[in-house]
Amino acid sequence: MTADIRRSSPRSVATTPCAIVPPHLLNRLARAEEPAVHEPARRTLALDAAQRAQRRLTAEIGPTAAPPTRGPDHSNRTVCDVEHRQELPGRRIRGEGEADVTDTSVNHAYEGLGATFAFYLQALSRSSIDGAGLPLDASVHYRRDYDNAFWDGEQMVFGDGDGRIFGDFTQSPDVIGHELTHGVTQYTANLTYVGQSGALNEHLSDVFGSLVEQYAKGETTEEASWLIGEELLRPGVQGVALRSMKAPGTAYDDDELGKDPQPAHMNDFVQTFADNGGVHINSGIPNHAFYLAATQLGAHAWDGAGRIWYDVLTSGTLASDADFTSFAQLTADAAEAYGPQERDAVLQAWDAVGVPTG
Q1: What is the mean pLDDT of residues 246-254?
Q2: At residue 341, what are phi and psi to the nearest 5 degrees?
Q3: CB distance 205 to 189 below 8 Å
Q4: Quick one: which of 62, 41, 100, 25 has its CA closest to 278?
Q5: Of 28, 65, 89, 105, which one has the fewest beta carbons inside 10 Å?
Q6: Chain-wide mean pLDDT for the chain?
Q7: What is the DSSP string of 36-94?
Q8: Residues tagged active-site
Q9: So what's the pLDDT on residue 141?
Q10: 7 close to 88: Cβ distance less than 8 angstroms
Q11: For residue 103, which of 6, 181, 21, 168 has the smallest C-alpha distance?
């Protein structure tokens, strides 16, 4: 129960940095006057940069279609405690089927892994993130005051937050779903993490992260908040989440965090060299398109727009360097298989955010 475990032979992983808090936001916090704000942000930026450098040394998984047969219908979860160190995975605390422990971060991580597995299996007939029952591993209490959570190509890693701006990153189920979906993308389209393809990578993680939470709560498109990281911001921060799919650019407006920079339309597309070409910023455009399509179709988003988006992601036809237009065209084509109502909803959604579908 408490023995240290080590990774088995490493799998090939994507070279993309996949962390929920974007670098442009951490850079803003790193310039804050208050040490309780800027010191954790600076340490987080340094750790994230080291993670990116390490991942560049590994091989990429080539894009593949979804496996033809489904893997096991049960999850295989392990949660470890890094004990504020950096070496992963740390000390094993809880495994599949074991009871709650006293550490709430361990329990939240365990539950979030389970909610994500259940969503992909029950809503999309996908067994774990690779489609073949891949074990879901997570490590909590990564370093001290670490302001992020990430998928490192093999497992989830959670920081505790600085306690001033961000709280415990295991508390937000959509964040867990978001990061694990980077794994799904890694095993399918493997979208290049730069420019518009990188923004699509982030977009897909926001979509399915949101759907993980909606599915767990049984929410309709009208009941859902369409917020990403709603539970992360501490009291006193002027904001509701990291991102809003319903209204990109409105998630926060705070003295420390600054103003949410996400656009909702191609007219406001942000040209930047930062954040790998604005992957966390311009993802607001396809995010809003998905929200519009999902809410027009109504009922449960995972049965409508979510199924269409998933079909495109796992089809084998989505190029790793896809841009917004090519992705939009594929979703329109995929929607046609479901009927004219679905196709119209998708076409109108992309038109509303200024992305042509041909």
Answers
A1: 98
A2: -65, -45
A3: no
A4: 25
A5: 65
A6: 91
A7: HHHHHHHHHHHHHHHHHHHHTTSPPPPP-PPPSS---SS--EEEEE-TT-SSSS-EEEE
A8: 179, 280
A9: 98
A10: yes
A11: 168
Query: What's the pLDDT tens digit per position in 306-351?
Result: 999 999 999 999 999 999 999 999 999 999 999 999 999 999 999 9
Per-residue pLDDT reduced to its tens digit, 150-198: 999 899 999 999 999 999 999 999 999 999 999 999 999 999 999 999 9
CA angle 215–219–222, rounded 5-degree value? 135
Inter-residue contact 39 to 167 (CB < 8 Å): no
Q: Which three-class secondary structure state does DSSP give residue 229?
A: coil
Q: How far apart are CA 97 and CA 87, in angstroms?
A: 26
Under 8 Å CB-to-CB from 179, ≥6 apart: which residues?
A: 18, 19, 20, 149, 150, 151, 156, 205, 209
Distance (Å, whole) CA 102 – CA 340 = 52
List the Cα angle 111/174/281 in 5-degree steps: 155
> Could you give the angle at the alpha carbon of 72 between the alpha carbons of 66 and 78, nearest 5°?
105
Residue 4 confidence class, pLDDT cut points 50, 70, 90: very low
Give the list of residues 6+ apart from residue 295 with CB closer than 8 angstroms, or none: 221, 222
Amino acid at the residue 18: C
Q: Helix, strand, or coil here: 242?
A: coil
Q: In a 3-state reduction of DSSP, which class is residue 351?
A: helix
pTM over 0.85: yes
